[in-house]
Design brief:
The chain has one domain (about 5-90): Alpha-Beta Plaits (2-Layer Sandwich). The protein has helices spanning about 15-25, 55-75; strands at about 5-10, 30-40, 45-50, 85-90. It contains two helices and four strands; from the N terminus they run βαββαβ. With about 100 residues, the chain is α+β, with helices and mostly antiparallel strands. Strand 2 (about 30-40) and strand 3 (about 45-50) form a beta hairpin. The chain has a four-stranded antiparallel β-sheet with strand order 2-3-1-4.
Length: about 100
């Protein structure tokens, strides 16, 4: 069963690029699709689809959080803001070109 969610994050496209640069080119195991879009009210919205929630958790813990925490630590001096809430969504179909 696929695991999918949306997440609204209070960052801009430039900060997002820094995160992606820190993650490197290799896509994570279990990732089906990741889409980042600008929100009209500011910030970005992620739409993610993974093979499983375990794949997402492993990626977040092993690769994503070290990169994001280092970048945010430079901005906030060690006091990291709370992680934005994830809103799970039910996957009916994934159709990729």
């Amino acid at each position: 069963m696929a695991y999918a969610f949306t997440q609204d994050v209070p960052i801009d496209a430039a900060f997002y690029r820094r995160i992606k640069d820190g993650l490197g080119e290799d896509p994570p195991k279990g990732l089906i699709a990741h889409i980042a879009v600008e929100r009209p009210e500011g910030g970005l919205r992620y739409i993610d689809v993974w093979d499983s929630e375990d794949d997402w958790d492993r990626f977040a813990e092993d690769r994503l959080h070290p990169v994001v925490h280092a970048l945010l630590g430079n901005l906030f001096g060690g006091d990291l803001p709370p992680e934005p809430e994830r809103s799970p969504i039910s996957v009916i179909d994934v159709w990729l070109a």
